[in-house]
Request: fold
Amino acid sequence: MRRSNLAASAFVARDCFAVLAMTGKLKTSRRLLLRGFTSAAMLPLFAGMNAMAAGPMITRPIPSSGEAMPVVGCGTSQVFDVGADDGARAPLKAVLRQLVEAGGRMIDTSPMYGRAEAVTGDLVAELGLRPRVFLATKVWTSGKERGIAQMRRSAELLRSPVIDLIQVHNLSDWRTQLATLRQMKERGQVRYIGITHYTTGSLPELARILESEPGIDFVQCAYSLGTRAAETALLPIAAERKVAVIVNRPFEDGDMFRRVRGKPVPEWAAEFDCTTWAQLFLKYILAEPAVTAAIPATANPEHMADDLKAGFGRLPDPQQRQRIRQFWDAL
Reply:
């Protein structure tokens, strides 16, 4: 179960408008009830809405260029691996529409994710979103020629001759693929290049590569309130080397929601415009200055709307982050 759903009429009132806009009707089901809520009634809930209305999503500059990147994006692992039928794709289309309407840009995918690249490319084209999104994919193979062929195929599936970011997925044959990516960047076939992994054990190797290899624009890693090793093993090096950081698995595949199931979000979370567990988990990550963007993966439009709220309003300061850590560790 990815999210804890607690019945609260205030939550239905807050989010049914987004559902009505997408579907034309209000569905009464647990899918409308977002994760966790503060027991201090309505004011903290509307604080999150007001934060979104007050201005654009928070952005961070990509260090190598200064280009502004909105801090909440969208991952596609597993959830975008669907067929061509409209029923499977309709919620994904709504997810991408919500992302862009809220000011988000980054969509991260990979050849490793089955049909996700093709689905992403199709939906971005159908919605006419290409000028407004930042497409990130990966190369996940060994050998120079196979790497070139795979990246060419990714460009075809994404319907984009120039891809914003290509990353070496899980450091697969990274020396070979990084050399190819540098050449592609020089030729204008890709705007940024990077490296990725999802395990804690890979963090030291990611850091060593950043220290030894020039010209890497992005590093992607797993980082969450529950798994904080990146805070010491990688993020300081990324900041020092001026490398943008993308955070994957911010909810640890839903495990974090299971841990707080049935528990209300602390009332003090309203101090940084936070009303749900998803927002608390994401705001903790986004308050780390080295982080450029987080990419929660979802096929649920209501969850996407909730996640996006983390990119608005105040972020926790260092003292509040420490309080969050202490709270989590005591659960």
Observations:
- The domain at 10-313 is CATH 3.20.20.100 (TIM Barrel).
- The two ends are 19 Å apart (CA to CA).
- Residues 48 and 273 are 5 Å apart (CA to CA).
- The chain has one domain: 10-313.
